[in-house]
Amino acid sequence: MRPEPLFPLFAPIKALPGIGPRLAPLIERLAGEHVVDLLWHLPTGVIDRRYSPKVTEARAGTTATLTVRVDAHQPGGNRKAPYRIVCADETGFVTLVFFHAKGDYLQRTYPVGATRVVSGFLEDYRGGLQMTHPDHVGTLEEIDAIKRVEPVYPLTAGLALKTLSKAVAAAVDRAPSLPEWIDAAYVAKASLPRWRDAVHAVHRPESATDLEPNTPARKRLAYDELLATQLALLIVRAKQRKLRGRPVKGTGKLSDRIVASLPFTLTASQKTALAEIRHDMAEDARMLRLLQGDVGSGKTVVAFLAMATAIEAGCQAALMAPTEILARQHYKTIAELAESTGLRVALLTGRDKGLARDKLLRAIVHGEVDIVVGTHALFSEDVVFLDLALAVIDEQHRFGVHQRLALSGKGKAVDILVMTATPIPRTLLLAAYGDLDASRLTDKPAGRKPVDTRALPVDRLADVYGALSRAIAEGAQVYWVCPLVEDSEILDLAAATDRYEALRQRFGDAVGLVHGQLAGPEKDTAMAAFAAGKTRILVATTVIEVGVDVPAATIMVIEHAERFGLAQLHQLRGRVGRGERASSCLLLYQKPLTQTAQARLNIMRETEDGFRIAEEDLRLRGGGEVLGTRQSGLPVFRLADLAVHADLLEIARSDARLALERDPELASERGQALRTLLYLFEQDEGVRRLRSG
Predict the structure, then answer these.
(1) Are 676 and 3 spatial neighbours (Cβ–Cβ below 8 Å)?
(2) Which of the listed residues 178, 380, 500, 530 has the most CB atoms within 10 Å of its CB?
(3) pTM of the prediction?
(4) Starting from the edge strand earliest in sequence, which strands make up the sheet with 437-441, in order?
């Protein structure tokens, strides 16, 4: 049960005064559905209303608070004409201007002869000062409430700043005094305010510098969020370790034959990762390990050798991928590797129906299949294994923890190996995968050639078309990736379709098209035509980002490269440079470039090291978006900025570990306060795990 002091914070948004059925959905979409979500909706700027000059001293182009006498109303001649109110002090005149005005309301608010305090943006109009739609109006008694620094919040269509500010202020007033959960020595050393004081401070800034991420109040709240996340991860991990595992030890027979049949030698980091995985599998505890490898570093081979170890022990293995394209790619790779060993590999996707599916399910449950490769279809209740010992999950950031647990429930004490081709900076790795041990593949397989990366303005398209004509005449194949448009599948598709039509006018039937809106079979047909060399240019949205392997493709064109994140550009570039021939990547950009976009393109030209690129991405963009905008699945922190607060994450992790070592059930006075923290940040899973023992 959530602690009682938190009840007011977990009331619905509409419990706040003035938030009715029209406004509640807007605020919920913007911030969240509970009052507490408004506490985490931090201001991004300030309006300083303390500037209160006499009228003649007031400067146009500033926000000012003026004390004036109402002299005259000048209603507009028609509905479209502005309604003006002439006001003055002893030094000069200012005109208040209103559009679509309600005259009776303005007469009541600004009675002639009355003194009013008005605050808003001043502008010069025909040599005189005017203020259009003042933000605030009040009497002399209310001057202190108006003459202040006002926070500015991110908004959504239909929601006014004044309305949202009132709602946030009401939410802040509900913030209770809570017991201190941070270690007392650290509070003193870092000079951190108490939680409630920090909440008040961040929503009542005195100047723009109070919005900086390193102010004591912001650091305090960032630390609270990081501590809650790390505590929950460590609790889940501790319970996971307590679950009885089973030692899975291979004989080495199959693995040795597979390694002998490979056309290349395993790299040093592949051998190290494999040793770490086999060591975990042989332990009594369940394995939960992350295999991180840059594009083309050979993760699939390592995973396949781990699966061979499970099969040597008389068990089965499964590999789950987030998309059908990726599942088919893995199936093809693994089936080829398995050919020399007689291993039985099957593919299961949502497309399998009827008798064929039934036959496959019977083969799995009777142990007639050693390795099952599939999509989300592997979660289905009717998929039952004879003895599943190892589950490999690719591109983990597209699956939740619950899905990971669902797959591990398909067998007895299943070991889990999670793979990602997205290089994750150490800071983010800790934040997102603190419950996993990690292995890194840092070498590129032998024979991989560097990709020549260049940047060109999009107005040189004619030169690009000419270069492609020459390359295609020499047998090259080309990916042409179209821009990411405002995170919209429909707009992405429109951009890809336009480019496809333009390229067809020049290259005819040599151009193919693949995008996320295509049905599975159509997508496969387009990919197969490209893989077979029937089409020479494949126009695509970012569906080809992960897992597509066509070694003959040697040119990658990324249109509007400035719209993509670094990690995504790197992923896309990794689709070429997979064969014997030299490869190139062309980044087409629209001028002028922002400083950040220029920095991204420079880094892409300088290096192919995915881990360096990921660190730079974190530095340039902060943790929230570091894996691109779509489905990154990494926690998006609302108070912590990992690019700034990386040191706090390390401290929070150490503190969480120490707290659990001293008080595993969080039963002490501080332990109870830490439970409150978990509930405050909705890390209820951690509390449930504590209770379940």
Answers:
(1) yes
(2) 530
(3) 0.70
(4) 345-348, 371-374, 316-320, 388-394, 415-420, 288-293, 437-441
* pLDDT tens string 414-445: 998 988 877 777 777 776 666 578 888 887 76
Residues 6+ apart with CB under 8 A from 503: 480, 511, 537, 539
Find the Cα–Cα–Cα–Cα dihedral 216, 221, 223, 226, rounded to 10°: -160
Give the number of other CB atoms < 10 A from CB of residue 25.
13
Asked if residue 584 lies in contact with residue 555, where contact means CB atoms within 8 angstroms, the answer is: yes
Both structure tokens of 99: 């559009």
Reported as a single tens digit per residue, the pLDDT across 55-100 is 999 999 999 999 999 999 999 878 789 999 999 999 999 999 999 8
Residues 6+ apart with CB under 8 A from 53: 59, 64, 66
Note whether 416 and 408 are within 8 A (CB): yes
The amino acid at residue 466 is G
| Cα(627)–Cα(566) distance, integer angstroms | 8
Task: State the maximum Cα–Cα separation within the chain, in Å, rounded to a whole number.
Answer: 98
Number of H helices, E strands in the chain: 24, 21
DSSP letter for each residue of 294-309: -TTS-HHHHHHHHHHH
Tokens of 351: 């497309």
**Contact call for residues 452 and 582 (beta carbons, < 8 A):** yes
Nearest CA-CA partner of 574 in 445, 486, 469, 428: 445
Residue with tokens 């109870």: 672
Q: What are phi and psi of 93, to 5 degrees?
A: -110, 150
Residue 279, token pair as written in the block: 């060591």
> pLDDT per residue over 18-43, tens digit each?
899 999 999 999 999 999 999 999 99
Show the tokens assigned to 345: 């590999």
Angle, nearest 10°, between helix axes 489-507 and 461-473?
60
**Structure tokens belonging to residue 454:** 């260049």
Q: Which residue has the tokens 């990411």?
A: 484
Which of 572, 581, 571 has the alpha carbon at shortest distance from 551?
Answer: 581
Alpha carbon separation from 62 to 12, 66, 144, 150, 432 (Å, rounded): 38, 12, 19, 14, 44
Task: Tell me the C-alpha distance between 216 and 187, whole Å.
Answer: 10
User: How far is CA 631 from each of CA 132, 220, 636, rounded to the nearest angstrom?
Assistant: 43, 29, 11
Using alpha carbons, select from 584, 560, 405 the residue that is nearest to residue 479: 584
Q: Which amino acid is at 270?
A: Q
Q: What is the DSSP letter of 212?
A: S
- Assigned token pair, 646: 């990386």
Structure tokens at 432: 């997102």
Beta bridge partners of 130: 95, 123
CA distances to 192, 193, 212, 674 from 189, rounded to whole Å, are 8, 11, 20, 20
